[in-house]
Design brief:
EC 2.1.1.-, 2 domains, ribosomal protein, four-stranded antiparallel beta sheet, 9 helices, Alpha-Beta Plaits, about 30% strand, S-adenosyl-L-methionine, Ribosomal_PrmA_MeTrfase
Length: about 325
C-alpha cells in the first residue's frame, strides 16, 4: 500500500501548536524536522560521538503526516487547512505551504530481519531466533538474539570488540580459579553482552539501561536462551547519576563491568563504575570511535582507581580495557 505524505512548511515557533492541532484531528505519526541547535540536554540524551552537522538555523520547520488514500484524506486535508487558518491568527505559521507526495508502506517492524544472519565472534555463534544453527557451528557457544526494533543485533564492531574481551577475561578468571563471577552490564539493550557472560559461565548479571524497552527485550532473549531470569537483574535507570540505581548495583561486588556505549558516556561512567568493581575487577569499554580513543584511554588512565590493560580496535571503533587497582 502507498500512503499520501503531507509536509507543512512552517516555523519552529509554531511546531508545538501545529502538532497538537493535528493530534486533536486524530492524525498520528507526526514527523518534525528543523535546524534548531541541539541543547546540552539533547546531546547528553543522544549518547553519540559525532553530532549531526545542521544547516544554519533559519527558524523554519517541516511537519509531516500521513493519510491513507481513499480514507477521506481530501476532507481531512480541508480540516487541516481550516485549523491552520485559525492558528495563523495568533501565531506565525511562516510559509504554511503543504506539499503532497506518495510513500511506500514498508514493513518497518520486520524489515531489519532481512539483514540479520548468524555470525561468529571467536568461539561464540550469535544467531537470530528464527534460524537454525549452521552445521559448521554446531560446537560453538550459541547465543540466540531477537532485538526487535529497539536494539542492535550484536553484529556491530563495538559489540564484537566487547564480546572478544569478555570471552578472554572470563577464561582467564576461570583458569585462575575465580568462582561465582558477577558481571555488571551498563546499557544492556537487548541483553546480548550479559547473555554472553552467562553463556560463558558467569553466575550473576546486573544490567542497566535508560530505555524501559530493555526490560522486555532482555526477558524475551533470556527465555530464548533458556536462562534463569533470577540470575539476570535488569534495572531501568542511569548508573552514572541515579543514587537508587547505584545502590541497587552495590559496591565492590563485580568481577567484570561492561560498557558498550559511546565515548561521552564512558567519560562520565569511569568516574562512577570503579566503585562497583572488586579490586582487580575488569572494566571493558567499547563504542569508542577512533577519534575519541586517546581521550577515553587518557581519562581512564588518569583515574587513580584504574590501570589501562589494553586497547583493541576493529574498523573505526576502539575498546579500552582497564583493571581496578584501588
Amino acid at each position: 500500500m502507498r500512503w499520501k505524505k503531507y509536509t507543512l512548511y512552517t516555523t519552529e515557533e509554531a511546531v508545538d501548536l501545529v502538532s497538537a492541532t493535528l493530534a486533536e484531528l486524530g492524525i498520528e505519526g507526526i514527523e518534525i524536522e528543523d535546524n534548531a541547535p541541539l541543547s546540552e540536554r539533547d546531546t547528553k540524551g543522544m549518547f553519540i560521538d559525532i553530532l549531526p552537522e545542521l544547516p544554519p538555523d533559519d527558524g523554519t520547520a517541516r511537519v509531516s503526516f500521513y493519510l491513507e488514500p481513499g480514507s477521506g484524506e481530501e476532507a481531512m486535508l480541508c480540516r487541516v487547512r481550516e485549523e491552520l487558518e485559525e492558528l495563523s491568527q495568533f501565531t506565525d505559521l511562516g510559509e504554511a505551504r503543504i506539499e503532497e507526495s506518495l510513500t511506500e508502506d514498508k514493513d518497518w517492524i520486520n524489515n531489519w530481519k532481512t539483514f540479520f544472519h548468524p555470525f561468529v565472534v571467536d568461539d561464540i555463534l550469535i544467531k537470530p531466533t528464527w534460524e537454525q544453527v549452521p552445521a559448521e557451528s554446531a560446537g560453538l557457544t550459541c547465543i540466540q538474539i531477537d532485538p526487535g526494533t529497539a536494539f542492535g543485533t550484536g553484529a556491530h564492531e563495538t559489540t564484537q570488540l566487547c564480546i572478544r574481551a569478555l570471552n578472554r577475561y572470563m577464561k582467564l578468571m576461570q583458569a585462575a580459579g575465580v568462582k561465582n563471577i558477577r558481571v555488571l552490564d551498563v546499557g544492556t539493550g537487548s541483553g546480548i553482552l550479559g547473555i554472553a557472560a552467562k553463556k560463558l559461565g558467569a553466575a550473576e548479571i546486573f544490567a542497566t539501561d535508560l530505555d524501559d524497552n530493555a526490560l522486555e527485550a532482555v526477558a524475551e532473549n533470556l527465555a530464548s536462551n533458556d536462562l534463569n531470569p533470577e540470575d539476570f537483574t535488569v534495572v531501568c535507570g542511569n548508573l552514572i547519576d541515579d543514587p537508587a540505581v547505584q545502590a541497587a548495583a552495590g559496591e565492590a561486588c563485580y568481577d567484570i563491568a561492561l560498557a558498550n556505549i559511546l565515548a561521552p558516556v564512558i567519560l562520565m561512567l569511569e568516574k562512577e563504575v570503579w566503585r562497583h568493581l572488586k579490586i582487580g575487577g575488569i572494566f571493558i569499554t567499547s563504542g569508542i570511535i577512533d577519534e575519541k580513543e586517546e581521550e577515553v584511554r587518557a581519562a581512564i588512565a588518569a583515574n587513580p582507581h584504574f590501570e589501562v590493560l589494553e586497547v583493541n580496535r576493529q574498523g573505526e571503533w576502539s575498546s579500552v580495557v582497564a583493571r581496578r587497582k584501588a
